[in-house]
Design brief:
Arc Repressor Mutant, subunit A, D-Maltodextrin-Binding Protein, domain 2, 8-stranded mixed β-sheet, 10 helices, 10 strands, elongated
């Protein structure tokens, strides 16, 4: 490969970030053909195709996604440098784009982001979607971090990395007047259950717990949404498996009761980011702090 042409790389970065050749050409005051030609020259110099082209649609190839992670670092840092030179300061506001898995606990999301809320130099943009769409948006760099209660498979071909940032114990919760007050499974035989849908980590842990006691739960419903699980736990009269904090208010009002905490079963929370990608300093500091907290938690365990 010949020496990298940063002018070509800049054009690639703008198009990859915007996802629209026409708009970028107008913003840069160049023709679409000239912009497309310079991106092709970058591809030729690298010997790799960076975009899959189908009509007017541009989609990054796997190689293009990897190149974009480096381009993000190069040009975001360049923008910070330009701001520092021109104004003598770093950018006033850091925009942090957070993807939140639609089925996870809002209590955790609020707790995780709370250190950033008082900072006047941070602006949060939150997006709630399914995990597949969130990872696509993370890969295309329209998100900085994804918060999930499902861990992603990490391997050398994947561009993201996953960090454990929180845990909540999981309990058996049910109507306040039906707690058998006996060691499991005695007294639980004729009760119905509302369970998280497989293959969630909570469900896997509960299934293993039941198996160890040779107990077969009578399942009334399986739910993949924590908010819906909370409503059914409150209204169905069945037992539910979920973190006690999710139904904290119902327990305080004595509508529900925590029957028992499941041993070695937790709801785990992960922060998923793109490898070697630029991160707003406030987000980087938050993730580093969460990493320290996780290590302390593991030592205490």
């Amino acid at each position: 490969m010949s020496r990298l042409n940063y002018h070509h790389l800049y054009y690639f970065w703008r198009v990859a970030t915007a996802g629209n050749l026409t708009r970028v050409a107008a913003e840069l005051h160049v023709s679409q053909s000239a912009l497309s030609s310079q991106i092709r020259q970058l591809e030729d110099s690298m010997g790799q195709v960076l975009f899959d082209r189908s009509g007017r649609t541009l989609r990054l190839t796997e190689w293009g996604q990897q190149v974009l992670t480096y381009a993000e670092d190069i040009f975001r840092k360049g923008e910070e440098l330009a701001s520092l030179v021109q104004q003598g300061t770093a950018p006033d506001v850091q925009v942090i784009r957070v993807g939140v898995m639609s089925t996870m606990s809002r209590n955790f999301v609020d707790s995780f982001l709370s250190p950033l809320l008082p900072d006047p130099q941070v602006r949060l943009v939150l997006q709630s979607r399914g995990i597949a769409e969130l990872l696509d948006n993370l890969a295309s760099h329209t998100l900085d971090v994804v918060l999930s209660n499902i861990n992603v498979t990490v391997n050398p071909k994947r561009i993201w990395q996953s960090q454990l940032v929180g845990q909540q114990p999981v309990s058996v919760v049910g109507p306040a007047d039906r707690n058998p007050l006996t060691p499991f499974p005695k007294g639980f035989e004729r009760m119905r259950w509302i369970l998280p849908s497989p293959p969630s980590e909570i469900r896997s842990g509960f299934d293993a717990f039941c198996s160890s006691h040779q107990f077969e739960p009578d399942i009334q419903a399986e739910v993949d949404d924590m908010a819906m699980l909370r409503l059914l736990a409150r209204d169905s009269g069945a037992l539910a498996i979920l973190p006690q904090v999710v139904v904290r208010d119902e327990i305080q009002r004595k509508e529900l009761s925590e029957y028992m905490e499941l041993p070695r079963v937790t709801e785990n929370f992960y922060a998923i980011t793109v490898k070697r990608s630029y991160q707003p300093p406030a987000l980087r500091a938050l993730l580093q702090q969460q990493s320290v907290s996780s290590r302390v938690l593991q030592k205490e365990d």
